[in-house]
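Q: I have 318 residues here and want to know how they pack in 3D. Can you give me a structure?
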Amino acid sequence: MSKGKTNSKNKSIDELKKSLVFWVERYFYKPTLFDRLLSSLLLPLSWLYCFAMFVRFKSKSVKDFDIDIVSVGNLSVGGSGKTPLVTALASRYEDAAIILRGYGRKSRGLFVVKQDEKILCGVDISGDEAMVYAKKLPHAIVIVSEDRTIAIQKAKELGAKIVFLDDAYSKHDIKKLDFLIEVDTKNRRCLPSGAFRERLWASKDAITLRETKEFKRVVHLRDKSDKMSLVSAIARPERLDEYLPEGVINRHYYEDHHSYTKSELEDILRSDDTDSLLLTYKDFVKVEAFNLPISLLDLEVEVDKSVFDFIDNYRMKD
């Protein structure tokens, strides 16, 4: 097969993947009449799935790793702002480690992304979210691993005194303090009828955090230009709409964790006739080496003191 045909085939596959991801996000969060009908038809599968998750939860035995562990997650699929919240929490503590699965990375297994203030791998190995932590938290250890238990042991070996788990509510065999970000959705059903991966089980201790109450977003716009092309590969990118500044000429949305090429970004600048690409930090870490004109939409959060009180009280009990 010629190079041209191969590139065309790969582009078609990417477009199909993108369309599927966007359909799923709409189905869960902004359903059409057809989507709501399909959701109702799939209810029996949702009941079976939810029951299986409950059995899984009840079958787990909690293990104490002899280190303070805080998990920040959400019950539903899709973005909820975990990365900026974990960043804000971990920034307060010395000898902190961040552990996450590393969705979208082109690697498998355990990798230490950052240690002793040194970034030890590229974004292809770490994944975009882990690289955000590595760059935003100068003194933290950052580890990616599908197996959180192995990663916790590694963090202890490296000298961590507190571990923050990104998206680990479902790791019921780990003794930890669980925070859950409340996501606004009218569909409270489990997969595949709704967006919920799991329930907040009655015998499970977890603290729900609500935006505007326990934390609020703060937006910093850096290197703004007169004409910008918004490019984003985050879950439910329409969440950015309320934070967009004047000067955004066009919006280009990709599926979560999309790996950009320099040529596709150059094509956007050329076709839109804009001065810069407007990116979130999660997108920026994947393209900073391209040497393209970039404006940064840096989303951070301010956390209410009560959240830190929960963490400090949890640590004192241990």
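Q: Anything worth noting?
A: The CA atoms of residues 112 and 304 lie 30 Å apart. The chain has two domains: 56-216+303-317, 217-300.
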